[in-house]
Structure formats: C-alpha cells, structure tokens
Amino acid sequence: MNTDKIYAESIAKEYAPKDNSKIVALRKLDAKAKMPATVFTYTFGILSTLIAGLGMSLSMQVIGGTLPLTVLGLVLGIVGFTCTAVNYPIYKKMLEKGKQKYAFEIVELAREISEEK
Fold first, then answer.
1. How many Å apart are CA 50 and CA 77, to the nearest integer?
2. What's the confidence (pLDDT) of residue 74?
C-alpha cells in the first residue's frame, strides 16, 4: 500500500469541485445540527473558566487583599468550577436534541445519496 498515493488522493478530493449538491446539503444539515451545542459549549466554558480564574485570584489575594474579597473569591471559584464541570453534560444534551431535530432529514438525504451510488 502506497501511503503517498492515498495522501495525494485525499488532498485531491478536498480541492475537487463538488458536483453532488446532496452531499453539500448533507454536510450543511450536519453542521446545523451540531453548531448550537458547539457555540454554547465554547462560550459557556470560556466564561466559566474566567469566573473561576477571577475567584482564584481574589481568594489568593492577588487582587484585592481584604477578607470580604477573599470570601467572594472562594464563592466565585466554586461557581466557576461548578459551571465548568456541568459544561460537558449540557453539551451532550444539546447535541442530542440537535441531532433529534434534524435526524429524519439527514437520514433521508443520506439514504438517497447511498442509493445513487
């Protein structure tokens, strides 16, 4: 098996014009099903991490330095880490709902494509 040949063919497929609009439609439907969950997960994860980081900075007295800010830092850290911990289960549920929403259309389109070949 010539791996260079396989690699060259895979790259050529990427740049070859896509005549089959059903495959393009299938990819768009797949992306439409997954995009909301992905966007939410990245946004929620970044915000959760920033909150946890702020809480750690306050609790270690890098910022502030008074007792009330240290307690606030502990609370923010716990909230941030809790949100980070629940991010993945929320993603899984949102992804499942998105897949269920577009499942019929994707399966039908995939069936049509597979029957053509």
1. 9
2. 95
What pLDDT does residue 49 have?
97
| pTM, 2 dp | 0.71
Structure-block tokens of residue 55: 């809480």
User: pLDDT tens, 1-28?
Assistant: 678 888 888 888 888 776 668 888 888 8
Sequence-separated (6 or more) residues with CB below 8 Å from residue 24: 18
Phi/psi class of residue 61: alpha, beta or left (left: φ > 0; alpha: ψ in -120 to 50)? left
19 backbone dihedrals φ, ψ, rounded to 5°: -80, -25
In this prediction, residue 110 carries a pLDDT of 86
Task: Give the Cα separation of 27 and 13 in Å (integer).
Answer: 15
Contacts by residues 72-79 (CB-CB < 8 Å, ≥ 24 positions apart): 76/51, 76/52, 77/52, 79/51, 79/52, 79/55
Extract the tokens encoding 43: 């946004």
